[in-house]
Amino acid sequence: MKSLNKKIFFFAIIVSLITAYLAYDYLNKLQQGSSVMKTKTMLIASQDIMPGEKISKNMITDIEVPEESYSPMGIHNINELTEKVAKEKILKGEIIPHERLLQEGETQLPFLIPDGKRALSLAIDEFSGVADLVKPNDFIDIYITVEEEIIDMQDSKIVHPKTSILLLQNIQVMAISKEVMKSEDEREVPAKYAVTVAVDPSDGEKLVLGEEMGNIKIALRGIGDESIYFTPGVVREDLVTEKGQVVIYK
């Protein structure tokens, strides 16, 4: 019996040594494998980035991924990402390929137009455009002056007097398209340039017809001024009296 117990004891020791060796060998190989695993750095969004939003460095973070998980689709140079504008929504944790960004020559204006509005351009010059002082994101009022119109009827004439009216109010300027020449001594503004505004569809109709019918002039609003006035418009008789008028008959 003692001989059998000794054999079992020695057998248990041998099994323990073999188990310990195998465990040591496994852990050693695992450690060696992890130490030689190759990784690469990838850039991902650290937060949700909305369409039209300009990307800054705090919106991007870098992570280390196994070489086999590395995606060549993303942009891996942070300088190629900063100051770019997102073309569509980018979720937190996503890589950012070139296709998700506005490229050179593409406009970001569609992303800036408020919901329910349309971007519409007006032909403006230095005098009708507040001395060339209006800038994008300013708010303006738009006036129109229509010349006198005489309509001949069968037995009479209808005279529509020259009229000025406040056509649209509190309109946002989206963009200004012009080439401005600058030097140390002079600043040259083109005779005509485009001011693009955001209007709802019904105001857009008024603006298109108004520009066809008469002369447009814009007025710059103060910061935070959202007041709306209801005015009937003015004709010549509202400005001057008939004093001194002479009627000469043919």
Could you describe the 3D structure shown?
This protein has 250 residues and is of the alpha+beta class. The protein has 2 domains: 62 residues, Alpha-Beta Complex (Type Iii Antifreeze Protein Isoform Hplc 12); 124 residues, no CATH class. 22% of the residues lie in helices and 28% in strands. The strands form 4 sheets. Strands 3, 4, 7, 10, 11 and 12 form a 6-stranded antiparallel beta sheet that branches. It has a two-stranded antiparallel sheet with strand order 1-2. A two-stranded antiparallel sheet has the order 5-6. β8 and β9 form a beta hairpin. The longest helix has 34 residues.
Helix amount = 10-25%
Radius of gyration: 37 Å
Structural class: alpha+beta
The coarse silhouette is: rod-shaped
**Which blocks of ≥5 consecutive residues have pLDDT under 50?**
179-184
What is the arithmetic mean of pLDDT?
76
Number of helices: 4
Percent strand: 25-35%
Describe the main β-sheet briefly.
6 strands, antiparallel
State the domain count: 2
Number of strands: 12
For the termini, the CA-CA separation is 153 Å
Please write the string of helix (H) and strand (E) elements.
HEEHEEEEEEEEHEEH
